[in-house]
């Protein structure tokens, strides 16, 4: 069939079903990460330093899962990979419902980290197979569904945690089972997509091995990967060190938690606006630059934040950057990646984010211990801004050499 965005003679996965699977699994995942530190520290008596190591292992496992599954997408049939990944995640969460002591909880958390990266890279890679819509639209919708899942999950998890942690894990397992069932029933068109790619390799239409990016594409993409990693390096301090800072200023902890509901709510609204008015930004470059710039500005405003409204303002500016830059980067990487290696580079996108996530709390905590919070805010803003300034001449130099694979 011929579509607005391109031509395809094969059926493809319906975008709404991809969204349903993503929404269900993100609600389930959002039951786990908000409670990990509290559960380990308050229920199991694990020290914060050990918890930091646990979370680091989770992030490393996530990066490993992303890397492996992204590469396998380009080589193997993705249908059993995504269906099996979601089903395994459901089984791990079910096991957590019955065995959640120490240190087995650490083992389960590493498993969920690996499977989270595995499934995330596969969903992003599968999204690159959709030809009915522009890539930017598809990734905006996926990002919307992820954050809608975060809104629902984080609102519910507090009540479930107080009632029964066993029930919490069982419900999370059921949500991943829903994702696996959707994948099993509705993702079958990806089999034909894989078969066509394999046939094209045999006939010489595409290379037998995954192609490398053209040199200009590679350096441009690496620039965005570094920027993404640095941005996440700073961003992770909102999830760790900023809570301590706000409480030290006399702001109740529950108001800090409310900031994340505000964050997810703004993301949902912005994604709806971008989906309805896709031409707000003239190009995907503009969307990314705007978003990264907002990140830099948000850290500067934290220098002056002394009361809760000041933190709400900083979070709102940061969220505006997050909701525009983060979904645009995988869409940009998709356009820059050769057809035979799209999965590989989608995996690398998640790895770039994962590196920032893994080292962010340690980096920020060290800066704060040595120089204080305000110095950390300045370093965060300047670091992100320097990455952005480096991207401008890089794009000017390479824009005429870049090739697109839409």
In short:
Keywords: Cell membrane, Membrane, Transmembrane, Transmembrane helix, Transport. This protein is mainly alpha-helical and 406 residues long. It contains 15 helices and no strands.
Give an overview in words.
With 406 residues, the protein is an all-alpha fold. It folds into 2 domains: 193 residues, MFS general substrate transporter like domains (Growth Hormone, Chain: A); 188 residues, Growth Hormone, Chain: A, CATH 1.20.1250. Helices cover 79% and strands 0% of the residues. The protein contains 15 helices and no strands. Helix 3 packs antiparallel against helix 14 and helix 12 runs antiparallel to helix 15. The longest helix has 30 residues. The protein is globular and about 65 Å long. It is a multi-pass membrane protein. One of its GO terms (molecular function) is transmembrane transporter activity. Keywords: Cell membrane, Membrane, Transmembrane, Transmembrane helix, Transport.
């Amino acid at each position: 069939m011929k579509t607005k965005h391109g031509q395809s003679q094969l059926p493809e996965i319906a975008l709404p079903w991809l969204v349903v699977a993503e929404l269900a699994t993100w609600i389930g995942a959002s039951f786990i990460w908000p409670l990990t530190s509290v559960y380990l520290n308050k229920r199991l008596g694990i020290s914060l330093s050990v918890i930091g190591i646990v979370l680091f292992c989770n992030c490393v496992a996530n990066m490993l899962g992303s890397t492996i599954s992204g590469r396998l997408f380009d080589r193997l049939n993705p249908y059993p990979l995504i269906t099996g990944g979601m089903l395994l995640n459901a089984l791990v969460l079910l096991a957590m419902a019955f065995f959640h002591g120490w240190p087995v909880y650490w083992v389960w958390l590493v498993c969920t980290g690996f499977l989270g990266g595995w499934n995330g890279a596969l969903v992003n890679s599968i999204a690159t197979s959709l030809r009915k819509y522009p890539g930017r639209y598809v990734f905006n919708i996926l990002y919307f569904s992820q954050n809608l899942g975060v809104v629902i999950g984080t609102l519910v998890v507090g009540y479930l945690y107080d009632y029964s942690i066993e029930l919490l894990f069982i419900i999370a397992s059921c949500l991943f089972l829903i994702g696996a069932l959707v994948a099993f029933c509705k993702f079958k068109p990806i089999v034909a997509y894989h078969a066509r790619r394999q046939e094209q390799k045999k006939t010489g239409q595409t290379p037998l091995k995954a192609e490398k990016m053209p040199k200009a594409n590679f350096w441009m993409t690496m620039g965005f990967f570094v920027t993404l990693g640095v941005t996440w390096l700073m961003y992770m301090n909102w999830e760790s060190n900023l809570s301590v800072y706000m409480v030290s200023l006399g702001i109740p902890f529950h108001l800090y938690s409310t900031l994340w509901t505000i964050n997810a709510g703004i993301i949902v609204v912005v994604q709806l606006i971008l989906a309805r008015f896709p031409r707000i930004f003239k190009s995907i470059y503009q969307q990314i630059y705007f978003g990264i710039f907002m990140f830099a500005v948000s850290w500067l405003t934290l220098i002056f934040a002394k009361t809760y409204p000041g933190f709400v303002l900083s979070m709102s500016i940061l969220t505006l950057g997050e909701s525009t830059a983060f979904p645009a980067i995988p869409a940009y990487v998709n356009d820059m990646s050769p057809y035979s290696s799209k999965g590989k580079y989608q995996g690398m996108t998640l790895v770039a984010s994962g590196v920032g996530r893994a080292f962010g709390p340690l980096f920020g905590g060290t800066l704060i211990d040595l120089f204080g919070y305000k110095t950390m805010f300045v370093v965060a803003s300047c670091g992100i801004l320097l990455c952005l300034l480096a991207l401008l001449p890089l794009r000017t130099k390479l824009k005429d050499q870049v090739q697109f694979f839409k």
